[in-house]
Structures are given as C-alpha cells and as structure tokens.
Amino acid sequence: MPFCRARCDYCAFATWTDRDHLIGDYVDACVAEVQVAISEEALPPASSIFFGGGTPSRLDGSQLGRILDALPVEPGCEVTAECNPEDATADLFGRWRSAGVNRVSFGAQSMVPEVLVGLGRRHGIEAVQSALRLAHDAGFASTSLDLIFGAACETDSDWERTLGAVLALDPRPEHLSCYALTVEPGTPLASDPTRYPDEDSQARRYEKTDSLLEDAGFGWYEISNWSTPGHECRHNRLYWDHGDYRGIGCAAHSHRGSRRFWNVRTPERYISAVASGRKPTGGEELLDDDACELERVSLMIRTRQGVPASWLPQDPSLEGLVETRGDRAILTLRGRLLANEVILRIAGAPRVTAGQPGILRR
Fold it and tell me: Greater confidence, 280 or 123?
C-alpha cells in the first residue's frame, strides 16, 4: 500500500504522499492481480497475509476488505495490517476486523517526543496508547509496535525511556520490532551526515533492549524481533525460513523456488499494466544453488532456531559469536551484533548436505 500522508526522513520505501486519488484504481488493480495469480499460477491458500506500506491505514476498511475477499486463505490465516497510531479509530478497526484482519502493527518508533520530531514522525506518544486501546477493544488477536533506535538526537536514556514506556502500556503489545536506524540513499537523513547514527551507541542500545525485554517476558526470535510466547509474526517467519511468498501491488517482491520477481515501482505504472492486461512485473532473477544457499544461511541464522550445527566451519573467529544447543548453532548476543560476519564465514564453509553424506557443497 504505497500511500502516505507524510514521508518520514529515514524512509526509502516505494511510497508517495500525493497519490491518494489513485487508491480506488489501485485497489481494483490489486484485486485483478490476485485473480490472475490464482488462475495462472495456481496460487495456493495463504497461511499469512501482510498489508505493508506505505500506510495501509490510508485505505478504509471496505477497500482492504475487497482485496482480502479475493484471496484464498487457510483456516486460521494470520492477517496483519500496518497502521500509523494517529490513523487508529474504532470505525477503522471495526471494519478491518469484519474484513478478516486479526493482527495490527503500529509504527510507534519512539516514546520520546523530541526523538519523534528528529525522525520526522508526526504522531505524539499519546496516540500510541490510544491506538493500542482501540485495537484491544476491537478484538485483534495480537498487536505489535515498530521501534527505531540510534537517531543522533536520541540518548541512551531516551531509548531506555522508550522501552520503559512501551512496557508500561496498558494494554501492552504482544510483539515488538526494534530496528537500528539505517541511512538509506536519497532520503533526507542521508543528506545530513550530522544526523547519522553511531554504531557503538546502537550496539549499547541493542544490548539494553534484549536485557529489558527478556526480563519483561519477551523472547527474541529474530535479531530485531521479540514477542511474548505464541505471538511471533507467522508471516515474517516465512521470510526467515526462506519460504515462498507472493507479493501484490507496486514494488511488491515475490519468491518461488529459485526465482525472485518484483513489480514495477510506481502506482501509475502498476495500475496501467494491470488495466491493460499486461503483467506488472518489473524484473526478475533466477538464483543458482550458491545464491540460494547464501540466502538460506543469511536468513536462518538470524533466528533463535539458528542453523544446523554441522554447518559451522572450524573457525576460531566464531568463538563467542555462535553457541551450539543440541544439533543447532545459534547466535549469541554478541553474535547478533556481528551477524553479517558470521553469515560470511558460515556461508563460505564447505559442509555435508543433509541426506547426501560425503557430498561437500559451498
């Protein structure tokens, strides 16, 4: 859903603040793309659906419901929609629940007003509490907050303030995504080096995050994600397990086996392609065995389940970064901070492929 009321200073996603007049035609195009995928690709029932953005809460409940109605779903399908806290209303959430949404994710980012301003966010901290209360009253099975740490305007105590405020919320979210601020080319943040995050500060804040959240009953299940038991995001777990998924809409990415493909970036081109009966595909790549292997390692090692211990190379530099639990190799807290280094060492090491003893693969 590529529509936003305003663009955040750090955002490099395919989003636009001046295209709301296209929403109706865009929803029509999404429904049409789904229908073609069902008929031509034998699209199976979805185990999870995620409305991301942009800002899905720019759509009213009936528009989002039209897309959901077009999708084949498994019983118990997890359906998540992202929402800005300031967009939350009882009417919107009532319509979403009626349409089938059962999980909502809020872009909170911080609970310190000065940091929100520094990130280019427009909501206040009171909106977060109000949004969670409305979501709870609407009966969503699970709620999540996105948080960002490492802004130059943020101190260590500011971040602790944010975490403390989130944990004190009533009702409290069951899931938290805590991301280190990243400088993306072409964003307002990228044009001002004085606002760049400091990596050592981010490392300290990550360690504090893990400590506070674990003490509060949130377990990490992926480097940037924590949840209370039973509230892990099923949809995102599919990505980290290197599963197959089908993206719908402009700039949406899909993955099937060894093929990745993506749609054209702008909503105008997407709408035009679908309306004229053309595929909205903007590009694709076929992954060879080595690329698939690297991706699988890169994604799986980020999770609490880790990778098979047999994949670990005899590399002294991994000491303290990976620990073995039974037959699994899992990142330590320090290893999570240096995950890319671990990935390169594991992915480049020869190992025996399961079920094929004696065959070494790189």
Answer: 280
Rounded CA-CA distance 306/72 in Å is: 31
Q: Which residues contact residue 95 at a Cβ distance below 8 angstroms, ignoring those fewer than 6 apart?
A: 60, 61, 62, 64, 65
Question: Cα(130)–Cα(73) distance, rounded to whole angstroms?
Answer: 31
SS3 state of residue 107: strand
What is the distance, to the nearest Å, from the Cα of residue 253 to the centroid of all Cα atoms in its chain? 13
Let me know: does 76 contact 70? Beta carbons within 8 Å. no
How far is 362 from 360, CA to CA, in rounded Å? 7
Domain 20-240 has CATH 1.10.10.10: no
Separation CA 224–CA 228 (nearest Å): 14
Closest CA to 304 of 232, 222, 231, 225: 222
| Domains of the chain, residue spans | 20-240, 301-361
320/333 Cα distance (integer angstroms) = 9
How confident is the model over 155-208, as pLDDT tens digits?
999 999 999 999 999 999 999 999 999 999 999 999 999 999 999 999 999 999
**Cα(93)–Cα(110) distance, integer angstroms:** 23
